[in-house]
Specification:
Layout (H helix, E strand, L loop, with lengths): L3 H10 L6 E4 L13 E2 L9 E2 L3 E4 L13 E9 L13 E5 L11 E4 L20 E4 L9 E2 L10 E3 L7 H9 L5 E4 L3 E7 L3 E2 L10 E2 L2 H11 L3 E8 L3 H11 L4 E5 L10 H8 L1 E6 L2 E2 L3 E9 L2 E8 L3 H19 L8 E7 L3 E2 L6 E2 L2 E7 L2 E6 L9 H4 L3 E3 L7 E2 L4 E6 L5 H4 L23 E2 L1
Parallel strand pairs: 5-6, 12-15, 12-16, 13-14, 16-20, 18-23, 21-25
Antiparallel strand pairs: 1-11, 2-10, 3-9, 4-6, 4-7, 5-8, 17-19, 19-20, 21-28, 21-29, 22-27, 24-25, 24-26, 26-28
The structure holds adenosine monophosphate and magnesium ion.
Length: 449
């Protein structure tokens, strides 16, 4: 039996970062930047106003107040995207809209709220603006002016190679005028279910046959962590069927199979895998998910990693979480892939009396009064997928610990931060200390795994 850490280390040693590709930034959400992105121009390009109001010379407002307003002649207006053709001479002002460049001669903007806003737009085609405005407050030089280059300066390195593209990075890339960006490619992950007992969802039910849950759960995990799943369907338990499906799967960047890797069954998966590639069969010191196959196949000069997950649906999901997820993230060029782990108070007694294995019990973590509580979500049998559906975390009960008593602390690997948002309901707990309605305050994770 090998430890989770050892298995992961061996597995990741065989997984390579994929080549780069060019993509539209919006298609690259969650991908890793494969280039340094620099600015070819200033953002904003020109000094501009952060408020709607009047651009003027600050000295013209000296001593202005409600009781003693300063009257300025309005010589025109300018909106965002245009440039005012003229100078703001002493005693004049230009009506200006947020984002519009500051006209020559002006050195401050006074918002409408600090004027008597007497001005009404002349009817269409009525010629240039005319009239006057009374300023009710003194303006400091530079007031409400955003300087050219205050966000980004020409030549600045803005985003570095290796950055994971979140919505904010995608916005930054767009602000630089880029409609293409170089990123590490997403892995195509072939997903294969094995077993004569399996039916595709949608097929009519038959006797002792069961529906293929694994392919769908695993494909969804692949997608969630940034890969592109390719479902190969179900391979019957025959050498021919299995060999053909595996060959088909080797066009992908990684192959994930489920079932047929446990000891003492009649499956021929093990034989076929061993014949087609280099495969190690491990028993990993974890519960659920003990039997795991890992190997590599050679095809057209490429080396394709293969993860053989256990058949039981919870085992396959948990094993994917611990091994498939990091593999995908490494292929995508991600350097940080650890999950947050929080220390929570067990609300149940949790026993771990089998052979020494880390117990990843499915639990629901909630937060009350600044503390986390972990409650088991039901039966922990490795075929009970519904208790996985109720969970947002997995306990990390060390192999040598036989039991965690109710009220004791336990480390929990967080799969999701919130049950509420996924279930479409909000808990009122801790609502008093939330900064925004509809948000939950989450303390930083204690560690990661
Ligand atoms: P095996 O490793 O093939 O012995 O499978 C272990 C258990 O997992 C058996 O009860 C299988 O029926 C079940 N199983 C295998 N593959 C799937 C699947 N794709 N969906 C749901 N259950 C499965
Ligand atoms: Mg089987």
């Amino acid at each position: 039996m090998i430890s989770i850490e050892e298995a992961l280390q061996q597995l990741l040693a065989q997984v390579q970062v994929l080549p780069e590709e060019k993509k539209h930034p919006l298609q690259a959400l969650g991908q890793v930047l494969a280039e340094d992105v620099a600015a070819g121009f200033d953002i904003p390009p020109l000094d501009n106003t952060s408020m709607d109001g009047y651009a003027l010379r600050a000295e013209d407002t000296a001593g202005a107040s409600e009781a003693s307003p300063r009257e300025l002649r309005v010589i025109g207006e300018v909106a965002a995207g245009y440039i005012f053709a003229g100078d703001v001479e002493p005693g004049t002002a230009v009506r200006i809209m947020t984002g519009a460049p500051i006209p020559e001669g002006a050195d401050a903007v006074v918002p409408f709220e600090e004027t008597d806003e007497p001005f009404t737009r002349p009817p269409e085609g009525a010629g240039s603006l005319s009239g006057s405005v009374h300023v009710l407050k003194e303006a400091a030089t530079g007031a409400n002016i955003r300087r050219a280059g205050e966000d980004v300066r020409t030549g600045d390195g803005v985003l570095g190679r290796g950055t994971v593209l979140r919505p904010q990075e995608i916005g930054v890339i767009a602000s630089l005028g880029r409609d293409e960006v170089r990123v590490i490619r997403r892995p195509v992950v072939a997903v294969l279910s094995t077993g004569d007992e399996l039916l595709e969802p949608g097929q009519p039910r038959k006797g002792s046959r069961i529906y293929d849950a694994n392919a769908y759960g695993i494909a969804a995990q692949v997608r969630r962590f940034g890969g592109e799943p390719r479902l190969l369907g179900i391979a019957a338990d025959t050498v021919e069927a299995l060999t053909a499906k595996i060959q088909d799967g080797l066009a992908a960047d990684m192959l994930i199979t489920s079932a047929g890797v446990s000891k003492g069954d009649y499956d021929i998966v093990k034989d076929v895998l061993a014949k087609e590639g280099k495969v190690a069969f491990w028993t990993v010191a974890m519960k659920p998910g003990k039997p795991l196959a890992f190997g590599t196949f050679e095809r057209d000069g490429r080396r394709i990693p293969h993860i053989g997950l256990p058949g039981n649906p919870v085992s396959s999901m948990v094993a994917f979480e611990l091994f498939g997820r990091p593999a995908i993230m490494k292929m995508m060029g991600k350097r940080e892939w650890l999950r947050p782990v929080v220390r929570a108070i067990a609300t149940d007694r949790i026993t771990n009396v089998d052979d020494p294995r880390v117990f990843l019990a499915r639990c629901a973590v909630t937060r009350r009064d600044g503390r986390y509580y972990a409650s088991l979500t039901g039966s922990q049998g490795s075929g009970i997928l519904t208790s996985m559906a109720k969970a947002n975390g997995l306990t990390l009960i060390p192999a040598e610990v036989d039991a965690v008593e109710e009220g004791e602390e336990v480390d929990v690997l967080m799969l999701d931060w919130s049950l509420g948002d996924e279930w479409g309901s909000w808990s009122d707990e801790g609502a008093g200390d939330t900064p925004l309605p509809g948000t939950t305050v989450i303390a930083p994770a204690d560690r990661s795994f």
